[in-house]
């Protein structure tokens, strides 16, 4: 069975990218039942929403403690690394725009085994982050409640937030995108107020360097800044529902990552200009900076942090379940995950399953524990995505029109891979061993179950 014929079945996963291109596959039909309703601004809003999570409300203080007034340069440096990765995502997404995002084009470049490992790390990383952020949101909400009801209220808030947003996503990608757009705008309002109000309260004396810069401090700052930029991989998981993907995905990534970089640098500069040396001692830098102007503004920034967490969960539930859907569609996980509700064109089983896992993680874990594991796992996905985009470009794969065709893709790939390897190297030995263990278990699951299940599905449709 050739790639042209098999592109609608699980057998297409075993076709190398070069063979698929040689047989003239011009359209990916694997997302049958879904609706391509997401435009460039909707996708860009979701990327901004996922990348600009709760971390920007805390990271400026940690950066100042590490390298002082040089902190904006850490954001600019990491923007270069993440920008290179974004180019690779745009290249790969414009060539193989399918549900599951990076999983789809990693699989197309390297086959089902590497695709499965990378896709599993992608959705599990997002689930860890979602659970951690939901737990942090509940922590913030119960902090104003009496202690006697805090514990039960904590669990109730987690279930209510994830459950309510799940119901929205079950209504279809258009409805899910609308709530992401709305919450993204709302969570950016407090940040805009912060920048406007804070710009007039900065003092030149606050930009004096008081922190000695050491290699350890610089490395810590780069990790923090890089963490603040991660998340775009989750947003493009809904690529199977993006209209004109060969154009929309690169445009959306470009708009979003440029906007995020400018926002982060501006927030860091204003925090430094208002708080000065005290920036390194605060846990809520944006809120404390606004407290010097008006207590009401401080409450606005605290509410903005909570809204940012809520909005992040909404965006995650829009993107990540599409990886589970893709696995079910391709026979790598139970086939029920690949079902689409006829009335809303939403992958309802995948959405509910992912929401249940996120809820369980939120009820049993904490933000700090889950966030570290999430960041390391996504680093491996980014490495695979960068190299996959480069390989697809060399093979001239294009399943949905003219791809991005970035001229210096090789350089972007090398920068992206090197930056992620550096991030992993800076982790603790225990964290690196945990990452290796998770990868090995995923590989073992593939060879023990997923491969056999996919082969059974292939035989049933042949």
Question: TL;DR?
Answer:
With 462 residues, the chain is mainly α. Helices cover 72% and strands 0% of the residues. The chain is globular.
Structure in words:
This protein is an all-alpha fold and 462 residues long. It has a single domain, classed as Amino acid/polyamine transporter I (Up-down Bundle), CATH 1.20.1740.10. The protein has helices at 3-6, 17-22, 40-51, 59-67, 71-95, 102-110, 112-142, 147-169, 173-199, 215-229, 232-235, 245-275, 285-291, 295-319, 321-329, 348-364, 367-395, 409-425, 429-461. Helix 3 crosses helix 14 (295-319), helix 5 crosses helix 18 (409-425) and helix 17 runs antiparallel to helix 18. The protein is globular, with a radius of gyration of 22 Å. The termini are close together. Mean pLDDT is 82; it is low at 1-28.
Overall residue-averaged pLDDT value = 82
Please outline the major beta sheet.
none
Shape: globular
CATH topology descriptor: Amino acid/polyamine transporter I
Helical proportion, percent range: over 70%
What proportion strand? under 5%
> Structural class of the secondary elements?
mainly alpha
Gyration radius over CA: 22 Å
What is the name of the CATH class?
Mainly Alpha
Q: Could you give me the name of the CATH homologous superfamily?
A: Amino acid/polyamine transporter I
Based on the structure, what is the oligomeric state of the protein chains? single chain
Low-confidence stretches: 1-28
Number of domains: 1
Strands, count? 0
* Number of helical segments with 4 or more residues: 19
Gap from first CA to last CA: 8 Å
